[in-house]
Amino acid sequence: MSVFFVTGASRGFGAEIVREALRRGHQVVATARRPDEIPFGDAVKVALDVTDEAQARTAVEQAVAAYGRIDVLVNNAGRGLLGTVEEASDEAARAVFDTNVFGVLNVQRAVLPVLRAQRSGHVIQLSSVGGFTGTPGWGVYAATKFAVEGFSEALAGELAPLGVKVTIVEPGFFRTDFLDGSSLHTADATIEDYAAAIDRLRELMAERNHAQPGDPVKAAAAIVDLTELPEPPLRIQLGTDAVERISAKLDFMRAEMAKWRTVSTSTDHDDA
Ligand code: NDP
């Protein structure tokens, strides 16, 4: 049985992962900004706003005091930002980076010493289909998840010799509160040139809120399955929409690279 440490366990994916891990008999440290809202009696509930590095260190101390180890870190806490790249204010862009990027780094810095000392463990990064593909209206959010994917790929290489695994999870649209006003921040439309497109996108996201195709209960089961494998993948897509979008991007990139290969390989020094 493993000890899980889950961020953002109050609702959505985080809560479902906690529920599934407990159901299978794992031990769970469930963390949230308001731990009294964590709906599980069997978990150790700990306060953690991931943007607070000192609180992350304290939360890890509490986890180790409770169970003596941490086997699985689930970096789940995160939020969206809907709006064009140009319309996202400096404040809005920094706020979403604070949670989705610097929050993950804060929690990792607190947990990794435990995993390295054990010479075992598994870090699960909740990225997104937006961590591999940038689409209009989701640019700054995508940038946060691209950042997570970049450092996670490097981290996987750094931790592999120390017996610690990393898996990047790329969900498509799942039926959580992600598109809800309680979670999704919307950049104010300020530029007329984008107004029609962004208004349509907002309407579409409002229609899709709580009607997304992905089932977070099934996603949680798939994620907990990954933690029980000897050789989990570095990346996994969840949801048909994620598989299709990422596969289309890979095809496009391969075709574009082939088309421009002569230019790409023409810039080396002649003696290289
Ligand atoms: P929800 O909005 O349902 O849940 C988000 C969770 O993150 C909540 O528990 C929230 O806590 C927590 N959270 C937000 N900010 C912080 C913070 N600063 N510190 C601690 N916890 C915080 O969305 P999801 O469950 O869908 O999102 C979970 C992850 O999945 C995110 O990283 C998201 O980017 C990713 N994802 C979701 C997709 C989807 O379609 N659902 C698609 C792709 C990726 P609180 O209750 O306090 O607000």
Strand content: 5-15%
| Lateral strand order in the biggest sheet | 3-2-1-4-6-7-9
Which consecutive residue ranges, at least 5 long each, have pLDDT under 50?
none
The CATH superfamily is NAD(P)-binding Rossmann-like Domain
Brief digest:
By secondary structure, this protein is an alpha/beta fold. Helices cover 48% and strands 15% of the residues. It has a single domain (3-244), classed as NAD(P)-binding Rossmann-like Domain (Rossmann fold), CATH 3.40.50.
What does the model show?
With about 270 residues, the chain is α/β, with parallel strands linked by helices. The chain has one domain (about 5-245): 3-Layer(aba) Sandwich (Rossmann fold), CATH 3.40.50.720. It contains 8 helices and 9 strands. It has helices spanning about 10-25, 55-65, 90-120, 140-160, 190-210, 215-225, 240-260, 260-265; strands at about 5, 25-30, 45, 70-75, 80, 120-125, 165-170, 185, 235-240. The strands form 2 sheets. A 7-stranded parallel β-sheet has the order 3-2-1-4-6-7-9, sandwiched between helices. The longest helix has 29 residues, at about 90-120. The radius of gyration is 20 Å and the shape is globular. NADPH dihydro-nicotinamide-adenine-dinucleotide phosphate (NDP) binds near residues 50, 99 and 178. NADPH dihydro-nicotinamide-adenine-dinucleotide phosphate binds near residues 49 and 212.
